């Protein structure tokens, strides 16, 4: 809470300069307020106007919002369009075919430039191949790809034929991939032989083989493999095909499949408070509208002159909205990077900004914090050693940014000239929700400031009543907006009860975060998740998921997982474990902890590996048998237990569990 106090008392305010105001698409707070007022006066009309202006429709819509089957809202439902058409063809038709869409930099530094004309041709060739191989509108295609132009091509090719893609982050294990393939009932997988990160080659195809070997995935008729490295792969004839082979004879034009506005563009799995990840389902029109519009509002994108770079992976929502769809829908030029920020050294980001003359840079607080450390340790890779004068806007996403990191980013990277937009949003929201607007919003380090026009964000209590500014509460959104998720794939009940809980009245979207608004400014500060979801390096992890993975190990009887604040990664995962056998100590404890860590890596993926594992004879529980998680969170931080422990059967276990291995 100390960190939040310091943000609420943050006195530094950074006003936009006259120059920033003059050039921004929403220049100044008056323009922002005018849009907010327009949305308040005529909510549906506001969104409909924007949807007409920013999207190209095959068949225009006549209806805006439909709330008749709440909370299963629809937007622009009788209109038809195609996402890939909006991202590619319309720019080529407007004479912008030669504009660079993607500047792709490989891990080893090799650079490839892809124009809009070329990207469209590649998308069409794969779309034709998918069609020829029997993939149809509405089918689900799982994409398990490295950061690559081919990854974007795969997503857009699915969109072009109306297939719903589900991208699985390349760091997830075969087990996680298997679960997602089953849940989505995928008919095809698009993957690569290997991925390359930080000079290392990591397998992808063999993980797909393993996932398909686990069963339940009989619907997967084909695996299309992009050859990235030429590394060895095993091949199942009849099922596996090379991407370069299937596109070889295909035409480079393909009629887009015109889909209804509500057609599911993609499903993206994310962690919640149960053991099973949920498939967040997004629409086509509402989602794409927001991807395009937030590129212009939040990043003030000038497609003709900006070079945008979002460092996220396409396996996460940030990569969907701000790599695959947003920059292309807006017709901009973007950098896409295969590798990691620390290879060949921790100056890679700064070097790339300099090399490609990046103007708008978007990354995660965890990356900034680790690069601060690296720059402190090695002057040679400090951002001041690079020419970063091309930059004009900086953004962050994924977790709260502490004021110190914000100030460093602003000064050392942005030279004090560039507004920092701290964008709060979620997989479920499709795009930015609460964020400053460059050239308009006065900035306060550590605050995501104000909701975008049309986003009715509020802070309420447990009964859904507004709380006064200055008082903490639950972050909600009061009205459905076009880019919101439509349902949880295959589980409408979970959508309804999870996001529109009856306790809040059933009509407020529950974000799952705590928030507080500043007394004077009304600015929002996000206080972190109120459910059992952790945020590790900007990655969302369910504690229950990790617990289920741990108890699936033959040695483990019981496990409880909590987060501990961490300077670099935001939170670190700490697991309290009771074994079926006696409590291990010393070298043996260390060895079993390593074994369990590796196990979780195998079960879920390396990002879910606990930082600390602690063993006890038991876990602290209330009389009714509930694990006392608050107490465990305290122990994880190394705090003395001050809580009443009289209900504990065996208080001695607190000493055991407080002991780091
Ligand atoms: C959760 C959503 C949005 C893309 C990346 C993460 C946290 C996100 C911020 C921010 C404070 C933030 C929230 C949210 N979060 N952005 N600017 N300030 N917290 O997407 O994996 O769906 O995670 O990330 O806790 O609920 P996600």
From TrEMBL:
**The keyword Metal-binding belongs to this UniProt entry's keyword annotation:** yes
Kindly report, in one word, the top-level EC class recorded for this enzyme: ligase
The record's GO molecular-function terms, alphabetically, read: acetate-CoA ligase activity; AMP binding; ATP binding; metal ion binding
Q: Which GO terms describe its biological process?
A: acetyl-CoA biosynthetic process from acetate
The UniProt record lists the AMP-binding enzyme C-terminal domain at: 545-626
Q: Which post-translational modifications are recorded for this protein? A: Acetylated. Deacetylation by the SIR2-homolog deacetylase activates the enzyme.
Domain named Acetyl-coenzyme A synthetase N-terminal is located at 32-87
User: Which EC numbers does the record give?
Assistant: 6.2.1.1
InterPro entries to which the protein is assigned, alphabetical: Ac_CoA_lig, ACAS_N, AMP-bd_C, AMP-bd_C_sf, AMP-binding_CS, AMP-dep_synth/lig_dom, ANL_N_sf
Q: Which GO terms describe its cellular component?
A: cytosol
Q: Give the residues the record marks as binding CoA.
A: 197-200, 318, 537
Which of UniProt's keywords are assigned here? Acetylation, ATP-binding, Ligase, Magnesium, Metal-binding, Nucleotide-binding
Q: Residue positions of the PTM N6-acetyllysine?
A: 626
The family database entries (HAMAP family) matched by this protein are listed as: Ac_CoA_synth
What this protein is reported to do is described as: Catalyzes the conversion of acetate into acetyl-CoA (AcCoA), an essential intermediate at the junction of anabolic and catabolic pathways. AcsA undergoes a two-step reaction. In the first half reaction, AcsA combines acetate with ATP to form acetyl-adenylate (AcAMP) intermediate. In the second half reaction, it can then transfer the acetyl group from AcAMP to the sulfhydryl group of CoA, forming the product AcCoA.
What is stated as this protein's family in its record?
A: Belongs to the ATP-dependent AMP-binding enzyme family.
Q: What is this protein called?
A: Acetyl-coenzyme A synthetase
* Source organism (scientific name): Chitinasiproducens palmae
By which gene is this protein encoded?
Answer: acsA
């Amino acid at each position: 809470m100390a960190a939040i106090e310091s943000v609420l008392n943050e006195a530094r305010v950074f006003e936009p300069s006259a120059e920033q105001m003059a050039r921004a698409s929403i220049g100044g707070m008056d323009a922002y307020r005018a849009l907010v007022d327009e949305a308040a006066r005529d909510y549906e009309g506001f969104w409909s106007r924007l949807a007409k202006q920013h999207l190209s429709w095959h068949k225009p819509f006549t209806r805006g919002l439909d709330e008749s089957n709440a909370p299963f809202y629809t937007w622009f439902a009788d209109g038809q369009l195609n996402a890939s058409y909006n991202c590619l063809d319309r720019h080529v038709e407007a004479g912008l075919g030669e504009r660079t869409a993607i500047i792709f930099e490989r891990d080893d530094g090799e650079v490839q430039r892809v124009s809009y004309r070329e990207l469209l041709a590649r998308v069409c060739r794969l779309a034709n191949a998918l069609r020829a191989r029997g993939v149809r509108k509405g089918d689900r295609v799982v994409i398990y790809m490295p950061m690559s132009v081919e990854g974007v091509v795969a997503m857009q090719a699915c969109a072009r034929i109306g297939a719903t893609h589900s991208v699985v982050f390349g760091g997830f294990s075969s087990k996680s991939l298997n679960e997602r393939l089953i849940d989505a009932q995928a008919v095809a997988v698009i993957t690569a032989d290997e991925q390359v990160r930080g000079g290392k080659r990591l397998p992808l195809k063999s993980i797909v083989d393993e996932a398909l070997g686990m069963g339940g995935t009989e619907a997967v008729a084909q695996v299309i493999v992009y050859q990235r490295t030429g590394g060895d792969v095993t091949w199942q004839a009849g099922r596996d095909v090379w991407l370069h082979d299937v596109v070889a004879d295909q035409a480079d034009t393909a009629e887009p499949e015109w889909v209804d506005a509500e057609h599911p563009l993609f499903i993206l799995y994310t962690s919640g408070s149960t053991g099973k990840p949920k498939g967040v389902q997004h629409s086509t029109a509402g989602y794409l509208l927001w991807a395009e519009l937030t590129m212009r509002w939040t990043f003030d994108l000038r497609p003709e002159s900006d070079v945008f770079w979002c460092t996220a992976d396409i396996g996460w929502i940030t990569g969907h909205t701000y790599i695959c769809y947003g920059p292309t829908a807006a017709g901009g030029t973007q950098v896409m990077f295969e590798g990691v920020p620390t290879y060949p050294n921790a100056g890679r980001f700064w070097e790339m900004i300099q090399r490609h003359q990046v103007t708008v840079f978007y990354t995660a607080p965890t990356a900034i914090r680790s690069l601060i450390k690296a720059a402190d340790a090695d002057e040679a890779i400090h951002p001041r050693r690079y020419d970063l004068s091309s930059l004009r806007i900086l953004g962050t996403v994924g977790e709260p940014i502490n004021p110190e990191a914000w100030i460093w980013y602003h000064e050392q990277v942005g030279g004090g000239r560039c507004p920092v937009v701290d964008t709060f949003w979620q997989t479920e929201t499709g795009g930015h929700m609460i964020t400053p607007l460059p050239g308009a919003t006065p900035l306060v380090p550590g605050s995501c400031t104000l909701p975008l026009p049309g986003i009715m964000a509020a802070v309420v209590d447990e009964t859904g009543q507004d709380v006064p500014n200055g008082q903490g509460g639950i972050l909600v959104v009061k009205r459905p907006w076009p880019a919101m998720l439509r349902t949880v794939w295959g589980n409408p009940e979970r959508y309804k009860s999870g996001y529109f809980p009856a306790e809040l009245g059933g009509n407020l979207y529950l974000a799952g975060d705590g928030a507080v608004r500043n007394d004077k400014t009304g600015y929002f500060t996000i206080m972190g998740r109120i459910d059992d979801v952790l945020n590790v390096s900007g990655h969302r992890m369910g504690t229950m998921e990790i617990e289920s993975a741990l108890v699936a190990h033959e040695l483990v009887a019981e496990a409880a997982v909590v987060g501990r604040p961490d300077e670099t990664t935001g939170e670190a995962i700490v697991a309290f474990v009771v074994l079926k056998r006696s409590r291990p100590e010393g070298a043996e404890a260390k060895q079993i902890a390593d074994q369990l860590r590796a196990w979780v890596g195998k079960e879920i993926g390396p990002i879910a590996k606990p930082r600390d594992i602690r063993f006890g004879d038991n876990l602290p529980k209330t009389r009714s048998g509930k694990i006392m998680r608050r107490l465990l969170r305290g122990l994880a931080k190394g705090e003395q237990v001050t809580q009443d422990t009289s209900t504990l059967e065996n208080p001695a276990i607190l000493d055991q569990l407080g002991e780091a291995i």
